């Protein structure tokens, strides 16, 4: 995936570049609006990450001149959380909008969502290690043993399985499973993960559901299983 | 244009004086005029009666000559009184310019008015026809009295009256100015005092008891405004302190932990743990800042925008579902009662957020196994469906004095209790509930009695 980042703040540009490169993306950087506009128009990108407040030419102007030429997906970044700004950005043709401070995971998820749009249908069957999930009949098996899950537990598992290997923050999980689109400061996700873990991981040797402390959870088979940090009691407050 | 109360008062005093003096002057003028006229007429009648008595008993030409002499002597040199006798027989006539004056008018009372050449003022006349006597035929006797003194007196009176009135009005203005100034002195004192109030001495107030009745209301209102301002000021100060404190704790953790980590060589997994811990603190900071920004947007009057006509019970059910696992774990249950069919215009994400905070609050403050109630109450109000959503939980009662402040930012009933089962809110949850209620044109409320605490909010009032 080829990404252009237009961001004047050095630190942010750097970590975005590093993080995205490590995710396997090709990243170009522009530190001001004029360079950003030039690169965006001259080259082909899968997606552009565009800061609103830029020296030279602000993000809205860059976006407007870009939209006269092409329809590259654009995510706007801003520190100003005003409805008018959001409306202005979306009106000018931005595809998404992130407010600083945002989590890197969230940016990653949005980038993937933008580039995934219009892709082929997902398969009806998912497989993570020896865990098998049938999305149509809404059943899960491990080692061909049926795992009995409630509707919400299955929804949680399916969402994590669809994004296997991807770290999901608690906020993202709350949004995807319960449609709770805000920082909720609750321990709902921890409790849910605990229950799911008790059903899909506890009886088996290979653990699939991992806690990434401070970031969220990931569902993936890990070859060499490092002892799981049981931090669930501590990492209550992120979201 | 700026108004001066003193100028207004003086102007009104002057206007009142003008009206009063005009009225008095007018009435006096009428009275004086009438009196003068009556007096003059009395004189005329007396003179006339004397002359009539003398003339009526004269019947011969001889004696008439004596009458003429007598009338001559009675006629003063300045012509202030004049006599005329009109007769068909010239021998029995008397007076100047008889021919010219012959046909002047007089009214049935025999009173008339006569203008004479060379005289500024007319003469008042009394005329009477005397019957024939001996040789003398019937004659018409007319006596004229000059009105000059009468008009002179009237004129003098009017001039004096106007002069007096003007002088009076001038004095009224002078006194009025002085009275108004003196009368407004307490106001000036009050404003001088008010000017000395500053943010440095917030607790100072106007002394109401020292002020006159009329100003005490104003002063009380002013003091009330000061009270509210002082409260707001103090709250702001406390709020700033709270914010600083809330931010300082995670910052202290971040700085300390990072310094400890860097102070000696460590392995990558050790650093990983530090970074993870730092990330948690950073996320806490982010969460506080986001919530504060949300509240700030509400403070700036941002209203809910994407309002949808929604069944409240559905949203309540979805929010309860969110807590399904937590409730299960705590062996709690939630019951929805009231108008389950109620609908209102809400922004669903905001509504869920508010209810999530309320449920979270209820769960935190209830003993295990408790039964939480969500009551929905629809009220029709001015063609608008107002829906009240309240969450009740059994638990320790909250003291009355805390109730109104529950919705204040960072307010904690029990400052020691912060963490609960791995979850620590940062004291903005209920403030957000209130903000969301306001964004929907509603309010938030709390009460606590007989072991049951109820906190709720309304939506669907007039849009904020």
Head-to-tail CA distance between termini of chain A: 28 Å
Q: Any idea what the CATH architecture of the largest domain in chain A is? A: 3-Layer(aba) Sandwich
Number of domains of chain A: 2
**How large is the radius of gyration of chain B?**
52 Å
Q: Give the CA-based shape of chain B.
A: rod-shaped
Instruction: Find the CATH topology of the largest domain in chain B.
Output: Heat Shock Protein 90
Q: Report the CATH topology name of the largest domain in chain A.
A: Rossmann fold
**Helix/strand structural class of chain A:** alpha/beta
Backbone shape of chain A: elongated
Would you tell me the overall average pLDDT of chain A? 83
Count of alpha and pi helical runs of chain B:
11
Distance between the termini of chain B: 35 Å
Count of folded domains of chain B: 3
List the helices and strands and how they pair.
The complex is a heterodimer of chains A (239) and B (464).
Chain A: E1 2-6, H1 10-22, E2 26-30, H2 33-42, E3 47-51, H3 59-67, E4 74-78, H4 83-91, E5 96-99, H5 104-116, E6 125-128, E7 131-134, E8 139-142, E9 145-147, H6 151-162, H7 170-178, H8 188-200, E10 209-212, E11 216-219
Parallel strand pairs in A: 1-2, 1-3, 3-4, 4-5
Antiparallel strand pairs in A: 6-7, 7-8, 8-9, 10-11
Helix pairs in contact in A: 2-3, 6-7
Chain B: H1 5-56, H2 61-74, E1 81-87, H3 98-101, E2 111-114, E3 123-130, E4 139-146, H4 148-183, H5 185-196, H6 213-262, H7 268-299, E5 308-311, H8 312-322, H9 324-329, E6 333-338, E7 343-346, H10 348-364, E8 371-381, E9 384-394, H11 429-439, E10 444-449, E11 452-459
Parallel strand pairs in B: 6-8
Antiparallel strand pairs in B: 1-4, 2-3, 3-4, 5-7, 8-9, 9-11, 10-11
Helix pairs in contact in B: 1-4, 6-7, 7-11, 8-10, 10-11
